Amino acid sequence: MKFSNTLLLGNILSVLSTLSKADQCTFSGGNYYCSETDAIIYSNVGTSSSYQDVTSMDENTCACSSSAKTFSGNLAPLNEELSVHFRGPINLVQFGVYFPAEGSNSVSNLKKRQLEKIAEEECKTTAQKPKHQHKRDVAVQVVEVTATVFVNADGQSITPVGDINVDGVLTTSVNANIQNGAATTTTLQNIVSSYTQVSTILNTNTKATAAAAASSAAASSSSSSSSSSGSSAAVAGSWQRASYFTPGSTSNCTFMNHQGGTAGSGVWSSCFGNSISFAASDGISGAASAQALGDVTVQSGKEFMIFSGQECGDNDASCGYSRDGIPAYHGFGGDDKIFVFEFSMPSDTSGSASNQDMPAVWLLNAKIPRTLQYGDASCSCWKTGCGEMDLFEILTAGSDKLISHVHDAQDGGTQDYFKRPVDGTLKAAVIFNSQDNTIHIVEVSEDFGDVLSEDTVNSWLSISGSSAALP
Description:
Layout: E1 6-7, H1 9-20, E2 26-28, E3 31-33, E4 39-43, E5 49-58, E6 63-71, E7 82-87, E8 91-100, H2 109-116, E9 143-144, E10 150-151, E11 157-158, E12 164-165, E13 172-179, E14 182-189, E15 199-202, H3 210-220, E16 239-246, E17 249-251, E18 253-257, E19 268-269, E20 273-274, E21 277-279, E22 286-287, E23 303-308, E24 337-344, E25 360-365, H4 367-371, E26 388-393, E27 401-407, E28 411-413, E29 418-419, E30 426-433, E31 438-443, E32 451-452, H5 454-461, E33 466-469
Parallel strand pairs: 4-33, 9-33
Antiparallel strand pairs: 1-12, 2-3, 4-31, 5-6, 7-23, 7-25, 8-16, 8-24, 10-11, 13-14, 14-15, 16-17, 16-32, 18-21, 18-23, 19-20, 21-22, 24-30, 25-26, 26-27, 27-28, 27-29, 30-31
Helix pairs in contact: 1-3
């Protein structure tokens, strides 16, 4: 899974502002955790920017080429096609994707084709899993993360230059172009030695002060101590299921992993390693053709992913470039879409040392796995911000706290967390709502039928939760 431990100074100060108000927060395994929640709401999602879109992968020179691709609009770039990724230990009980039904909102041609591929009869899971207790009385916290907190004497924003490497005590040094283009040094020592103190030393040549920075961070996080009102814009009309999975049965879902060249699909090369491939029913092995995942617990550290059932065609602009020889399938695109999940994450220490007992569920721009998910950064658009959204991620081995975060041109998240479903299952919906540029990750109890009613979706949108407003 892609992940960056790099934050801009503004992000850190904004988080600190939140932590100073949240005495229930704890520091564990190098990460802060605040309140358990049953909803995380991202607001102000979408920006205008560009990323480096891979255009070729040369097996002779082991080099990749790319060109700039601009994006803008509601929820961009997360409105582009997304693939859905899972890391064990995890048992996936249900998965589905919904789009607005005809007459409710506009439906793209891709969505129409996906809807047409739904089977008339879909098998339901026969295994009755214990349910994760759904909570509605959990305290929630609003967290707003912004990327710019410095201002000069004229009140103009100043953006720090360089990366802040976050370690156990968050001792950092940043070069910032603050005055007349001259680089000065800002040192923050023991930033989070407590929740209420920030020791800051600023070069006297700068026009920014610790007080101004902290004040700006607090102002931009004005909602950080209150609960979200659940006032997201309502949607009109029902939502039709376009993809669905239960163990052993799929409709418009294609399971893949990273076993290219081992079992009849995908490729391997000394330059780029194993490509993606069809996954066998165990989720771990490769396969020559698409198979449904079985009723299995994928072990610790192992990964699989889900694309739609629609293959990418030649010169398919919505897919973009794909590595030669791979099974290339469309992801799930559009401004308005809902992903639903039911899964358990039992403890398992038998996997790889790097990701042992650290399950996760996340979304990637589907171009990333179709080129190179892990490896040379120039062979993927990830580093340049084409889009990742961590939905449920364990950050340290054995933790029971699932964190969410967005990684793209807008970077942000929250220290609130979902309870990991170690024994039972967690049912959740992820709602992309272009009406107000929000993404809601909500723990739910309702069934996932062929159709989600307007009332059901709006009830999910109304659930108060921890909110991360992207810059």
